[in-house]
Amino acid sequence: MFGNKRLAKRSIVGTRVCGLWPQDGRYYPGMIQSQVSEESITSSAVYVVRFDDGFTQHVKSRCIVGPGFQPVATTPLKHKQKVFITLNGREVCGTVLCHDRDIDEVVISVRTPSGEDFETVRKLEDVRLLESRKSARLVDHPDTDYSKLADVQLSANNTPVADANKRRMPSHVIDVPMMASLDKSERNRRQRSTVEDNSDDFGDVEMMDETIAAMVLTSLSVSPKSPPPVNYYGHTPQKEQLDNHYPYPDSHLSSSVASSGFYSGPSERDDHSPPLAPLSESAPACMGFKPPTPGGSDDDSSNGSGRLLICEEEDTLYKCTWRGCKEIANTSNAIERHIRRVHFDRDSDIELTDNEEEFHYTEIDVTAQSINNITRSFAAMNTSSPKEAPATEQPAAAASQAHTGKPKMDQLRPMPPKMPDYQHIPRRRHISEGSPQAGIGGSGTGQGGVAFHHSHGQGGDTVGGGFTTEIAFVPKGMSSSLGSGGAGVFDHDYQRKFSKQGPQAQHASSVPTSASLFHESPRASLPITISQGQIQKSLSWQTHPPSPAGIMVSPPQRPNKLTPQERLMQHQAQSPKSSVPPSAFKNAPGHHRRPRSEVRKCRKVYGMEHRDQWCTQCKWKKACTRFVD
DNA sequence: TGTGCCGGGCG
DNA sequence: CGCCCGGCACA
Ligand SMILES: [Zn+2]
C-alpha cells in the first residue's frame, strides 16, 4: 500500500481512473480531481473523482481502479460494467455479462462496429475499465483521452502507465458520441441516482472546451467572464453533489484539461475503426452528444445551448507527417489508409501492427479561425471556408470536393496578431522507415495539393527567427479548410479538434469561438532545419512548463494537472523543445548532440518492462521513430 | 540517475 | 540489414 499510495499521490490529480459509483457498484471513468484525505492505517485515502459525465464524488482509493490505485485484476466487475478489451488488435468496448471471481474470467458482451453483439470471455487482467491506448482512434470509440490510455491497464502489470499506449488522442468532443451510446447507460444512472445532468454533458466536452476556451481567452485576453458556466449547464440543476462547477468559469476546464492535455483533446471518437463509418464523424458526434437525455432535467433541448456543439465549426483534417508527404485527408481513416498504402506499402485496409499509422499523421484542426493567421494567408489565397461537418468523413478523395462553403469563422474576432503555428517538426531523419515516395518537395502525393508556405517573421512574440510553415493540402478542394480553421497540428494524434468550444463562446454569440486555438507562443520556437525543403513547422505553444508533478489540489484553473501519462502526451504534443535555445542547435563542433527533445520516447512511455512495445528503433537504442519530436 | 541515441560491432 | 550494446551528452 504504501508504495501504491505514494505513487499515486504525486501526480495523481488528473489521473484517469475508474471510480466505483456506489449507487450501482460499477466503475465509471473519470479523473482524480483532488485528494481529500491521506491514507492512514485505519482508513484508505479518499479522492475526489470527477466522472466523465460530470459527477464528482468522493471515492476511496480502494474503490478506484487506475494507475496508482487498484488494478483491475482485483476488482470484481458487475454485470453491465463497461469495459474495454483488445479484440483483434483493437480496443473495443463491451459490457460485462458476468465475472467469475473464482477464475477471474469475465464474460463480456462486445458490440462490433458493425453493430452486432457477441460475447467473449476474457481474463480479468485483460480487461480494462478505461479506454486505453491508442485506441481511441482506432477503436471505435472514442473517447479517448489519452489519458485514459493508461489507465487501468496497469492492472496487470502495474504501472505502466500506460502511456504506453501511445494513444494519443484525446478528444473529447468526439467522444461524445460514443458516450451517447455506451455511456448512455452511464448517464442515466447518474441522473437517476444523483441528479445531475447537465454536468454530464459537459463533462465530456468540457475538456476541450476548456482548453479551447482557455486558449481563447488567453489569446484574446478576454477575461472569462461569468457567463460561461452557467449557461453551460444550462440550468444548473440542483445542487448536485459536487460543486457544480468550479469556481471559475474556466475552472472546469482546467480539470478537464488536464486530462486532455492541452488541447489535445478531442479525439475523435470512433471514427476510424470501422472502415467505413457511414456517418460523418462530426455529424454524429454532435448529435450523439446530446441525445438521450434521460431524465429530464437536462437542459437539453435542442438548442444546444449547452452542449456544444461542435458540429458547426469543427473540422479536423489529418495530415500525413511522413517525411516529405503532405497528404491531408479529412478522416483519420483516410489518412491511415494513405499511410499504409503509400508509406508502408501495405494493403490499405489492413492496419499496421500496432497501428503504426497513427504515428505518422497529425490532426489539424480547422476550426474557426483559430488559426486565423495562418489562415488568413490561406484565405487570401483561396478563400475558402471550412466545410462543415459532414465533410469530415470523407476520404481524401472526396475531400477534394470540400468546397468552400461558407466562411463562417472569420469574422469573429480575430485574435490578435499572434500566430498560431503549428508545431511539429520533423527534425531529423525519420529513420527507420524510408518511405518510398515521400515526395519531398511539394507535391507529395500528388494530388492536387496546394502547398503553402507560411513564413512568418514573428510579429511580436513568436519566434525569434521566423520559421516557416509549410503545408500542403492534398485535396484540392480543401484549401479552405485550413484557412478557415486553424490548424493545430500536433504530433501524432494527440490533438484534435476542439471546436466546440464552448459554451461560453457560444452563448455569447459574439464570442469568438474558435478563436484562438492555439496559441501563439511566447517563446520562440526554433527553427530547425528549415531551409531545405522539408517541411517543417514549428510551433510554439505557450510552453507550459511541465508542471511539477506535485500539484494536488486544484489550483486555479487552467493549470493542468495531468497524470503522468497525460502529461506525457501532452508534452509530446507540444514538444517543442522550448527550452532549447535555438542557438544551441547549431553549434556544433561536429558532434551531434542535439538537445534532447522533451518528448518521451518509447522507453519512458512504456517502461523497460514493456520493452516489447517499444518501437524498433528504441529497442535498438536508436532514435525513436514512434515519438518523433 | 535516468534517458536518448550515436557509433560500432556482430551475425 | 537486423540486432545489440558501450558510452556519452543531456536532463
Ligand atoms: Zn520509440
From TrEMBL:
Gene3D superfamilies: 2.30.30.140. Pfam families: DUF4772 (PF15997). This is Zinc finger protein 395. GO terms for molecular function: DNA-binding transcription factor activity; RNA polymerase II cis-regulatory region sequence-specific DNA binding; zinc ion binding. Keywords: DNA-binding, Metal-binding, Nucleus, Transcription, Transcription regulation, Zinc, Zinc-finger. It comes from Plakobranchus ocellatus. Its main location: nucleus. Residues 179-205, 223-306, 382-415, 432-462, 498-518, 540-598 are annotated as: Disordered. One of its GO terms (biological process) is regulation of transcription by RNA polymerase II. It comes from the Eukaryota.
